[in-house]
Design a protein that fits this description.
This protein is of the alpha/beta class and 322 residues long. It has a single domain, classed as Luciferase-like domain (TIM Barrel), CATH 3.20.20. The protein contains 14 helices and 11 strands. An 8-stranded parallel barrel has the order 1-2-3-4-7-8-9-11, surrounded by 5 helices. The chain has a two-stranded antiparallel sheet with strand order 5-6. The longest helix is centred in the middle third of the chain and has 19 residues. The protein is globular.
Length: 322
């Protein structure tokens, strides 16, 4: 059975609004909620970037049943992996086991702020692999000392940690990522509805893990307004991970997406009032075998109306598809 999630987009909404949306999303029946973890939005027009971990702590108290997840946190440059482990353990306890730690190799947009160089992709993956090993070791509750190629840990111990640790999802984008991270992660995270990624990951887990995807939509009673909003806020979306990961600033994303037209965005993001069409846009993830799909409703404006009017009937259509 496929689960459907709601995305708490820290790039397009303030922290108080996000907590309120989280409550509404649980009430209308979303199965889980994921949060981005950014220091910058992709475009200045998005206008926000609150601290995801503080917001998620508030969400953990404001909700009671919905699962929570970072989608995703980079544990290598802006954060040290030992600190990520502590944050994740605390959030898991606050949410009474409803939290999954989603990890990835990061984007320059968010990691450059601490003044460190931005490594090439191979080195970033090396760093991520080492970070996951440190985090897993700390989740045992044991004292950890680590001397690696990228990180050092000196007699660290988590004093408040769930008995069974915290499940870890890892973002991958191709077969190399599958080979490296499927043995380390509990669940797969990716934004591409590619069946080969699912089967490759399952080969390491006997099909017993979650495959978690994400897709943007832009519901609005006025289709033209939906397309305009998606173009204004999400035209960077078509660049793909291999481009987006290396761009350092919002100005870079603006320049890279300046020739993207509204009609281009409308071809890649389901926009407008037609809930059947929006539901159909999710079908590639279902066909590829994803177990969990998180929706991104584009834009802070209209978010309340989406949750009040469209989310519940959309979930009904999505569950009928599966």
């Amino acid at each position: 059975m496929t689960n459907f999630g709601y995305t708490l987009m820290t790039e397009q909404s303030g922290p108080r609004e996000l907590v309120r949306y989280a409550e509404k999303a649980e009430a209308v029946g979303f199965d889980f909620e994921v949060s981005s973890d950014h220091y910058f939005p992709w475009l200045d027009s998005m206008g926000h970037a609150p601290y995801a971990w503080t917001m998620l702590g508030a969400v953990a108290h404001a909700t009671s049943t919905v699962e929570l997840m970072t989608y995703v946190t980079c544990p290598t440059i802006r954060y040290h992996p030992a600190v990520v482990a502590q944050k994740a353990a605390t959030l898991s306890l606050l949410s009474e086991g409803r939290f999954t730690l989603g990890l990835g190799a990061g984007e320059n947009l968010n990691e450059h702020v601490v003044g460190e160089r931005w490594p090439a992709v191979g080195e970033r993956q090396d760093m991520l692999e080492e970070a996951v090993q440190i985090i897993r070791a700390l989740f045992t509750g044991d004292t950890v000392t680590w001397e690696g190629n990228h990180f050092r840990v000196d007699q660290a111990k988590l004093w408040d940690v769930p008995d069974d640790g915290v499940p870890i999802g890892i973002a991958v984008s191709g077969p190399v990522g599958i080979r490296r991270f499927a043995p380390l992660g509990d669940h797969m995270i990716t934004t591409d509805p590619v069946a080969d990624l699912v089967t490759g990951w399952d080969a390491h887990h006997d099909g017993a893990s979650r495959k978690i995807g994400q897709i943007p939509i832009c519901w609005d009673p006025d289709k033209d307004a939906a397309i305009e909003r998606a173009h204004r806020l999400f035209r960077w979306f078509g660049g793909g991970w291999h481009v987006n990961a290396d761009l350092p600033t919002t100005a870079s994303f603006d320049s890279a997406s300046q020739f993207v037209r509204p009609e281009d965005v409308a071809e890649s993001i389901a926009c407008g009032p037609d809930l059947d069409a929006i539901a159909e846009s999710v079908r590639p993830f279902l066909d590829a075998g994803f177990t969990d799909i998180a929706l991104v409703q584009v834009g802070d404006e209209g978010q309340d109306r989406f949750l009040d009017e469209a989310a519940e009937p959309l979930l009904e259509r999505l569950r009928a598809l599966r």
